[in-house]
Design goal:
This protein has about 70 residues and is mostly helical. Helices cover about 70% and strands about 0% of the residues.
Length: about 70
């Protein structure tokens, strides 16, 4: 479950997950849930800060823009 939640990278998903666990208590998993929310929040902030740079880098790193390797 936690691995699936970690794949979320939007503020909306963060808010949905937080809301879900506020209404569906899981005391034994509180620490893990908090860490997961922190991880998602970190990803959201990272993408907001660097998303355009990453997108630009990926576009320039596409196979069509690479120099062919010579073996």
């Amino acid at each position: 479950l936690i691995q699936a939640l970690n794949r979320n990278t939007t503020r909306e998903a963060y808010n949905d997950i937080k809301k879900f666990f506020k209404t569906h208590s899981a005391p034994a998993a509180t620490r893990t849930i908090d860490q997961t929310l922190e991880y998602i929040d970190s990803n959201v902030r990272w993408l907001k800060r660097d998303g355009k740079k990453i997108e630009k880098w990926l576009r320039h790193s596409e196979p069509s823009s690479r120099t062919p390797k010579v073996n």
